[in-house]
Amino acid sequence: MRSTRATSLVSVIAASALLTGCTVANSDSGDAASPDTVRIVLPQEPPTLEPCDVSLTAIGVVTRSNITEPMIERDPTTGDLEPKLATSWERTSDTEWTIRLRDDVTFSDGTPFDAEDAAVSVDRAVNSDLACNVEGYVFGDDDLTVRAVDPTTLTVASPTPDPILPLRLSFIEMVKSEVGSTERTREPIGTGPYRVDSWDYGQRLSLVRNDTYWGDAPEFTRAVYQWRTEGSVRAAMVTNGEADIATGLGPEDGAGDLGVAFPNNETTALRMQATTPPLDDQRVREAINYAINRAGIVKALFRGMGAPAAQLIADGVVGYNDELTPWPYDMEKGTALIDEARADGVPVDTEIRLIGRTGQFPKINETVEVIQNALAGIGLNVKIEMKDTAATAEFQERPFPNVGPYLLVIQHGNQAGDAAFTMDQYMRSDGFQSSYGTTDFDEGIDEAESLTDEERQTAFADLFAREPEEITQMAYIAHMNGVLAKDPRIDYTPDSATVDEMRLAEMTRSSDATD
What we know:
It is built from 15 helices and 20 strands. By secondary structure, it is of the alpha+beta class. The strands form four sheets. Strands 1, 2, 9, 10, 11, 12, 13, 14, 15, 16, 17 and 18 form a twelve-stranded mixed sheet that branches. A four-stranded antiparallel sheet has the order 5-6-8-7, covered by helices on one side. It has a two-stranded antiparallel ribbon with strand order 3-4. The longest helix is centred in the last third of the chain and has 18 residues, at 453-470. The chain is globular. 49% of the residues are buried. Mean pLDDT is 91; it is low at 1-31.
């Protein structure tokens, strides 16, 4: 039940919103300590809740399947596609798919959801000028032809045959057609089991149960998100009873018996701006790979929670090559390559920026320091820059800034389960987060994406074997494991999608919890 004190504060919060930066989506803020509330502490505040940017972890973990929902969703355990707001889909030509929608869904404001809303949602995410993250991650430069046939029927056509178009569509969250395709929305109105209640920017975000939800009502009536940069602080909030769930923890953060380890499919890597001297020299990029002690980083910094990586996808994703081994650690070879490049006039003494994102994963600061020291050891001049999510995006996505050579620590999780999403974004010559590629490699990606079943698996696996030799854009670091802290009063089982999509509806009260 809502506390009297919290109710009395509503008018004060509303009156001070303009002064404090607080937005109040409605005036029922509730009590964060209530047994009906689940309290979650994240590594960083989401910069927005824009549905077309849910491929960004900081946004998707709050928005996806909580506030908004897709037509089709992928089961992270089995990899199967399942209906959500759609009831069925079928391929009706080489390039076109027909999708049937539920007729009993409304948005949280009571407005019915129909095919026109779905068409606008697809159009704004893929075809608009909004530069949505999901466009670059999932669709690249390809536009789709979308048509609402009737209130419950939608057709979607790709410019060329695409055997996994329904899988791509599972990344698009539905919004009201009134939102349109010309402006972003910071606090969306969706069809999900929760809606935005209040957002005190820089402090906390509150979601409240959507009582008009078409599906089963979630158990908790409210979810309150806070954010703390330090993993040890997040863990302590759970152990001290200030929060119920803390994400993005390391094994050393002090969660103790409340820590829950789980496999995720995140892979960390160092992306090199391979068209900018001295990084445009293949020998320099190879030397960087030799200098990174992947096994040492996993053992000493990650406490064994992970494995050295030889490719950008993890086991279980279509295209994973289980025959690849991580690049060997060899400082002598790395130094020799830098010396050779220097002798040929390559400007290897140029300052190279090493950019990491604050809170990106546990021990990110220590990881970049280890890498900086290693690269200095082979003769490179590297300067560390730690940035927040918004500032990092400038260096992460096209068009890249013309600021000289830089290395960017990335973390990629292929939640779709198919290598096409990784290849299109990170390895095409014009990929949304790719700094380099070749025509031959692009053609190999095109061929792999036209295939199905075992032929598709083999073709993508071959491309992952070719990348270190032909492109060498990446220095892969580690396949990561996840750790979260969970109060015993909460029943919740994390899975490989938890890093990007934490479904509040899957959280229930523990059977032995006491109010």
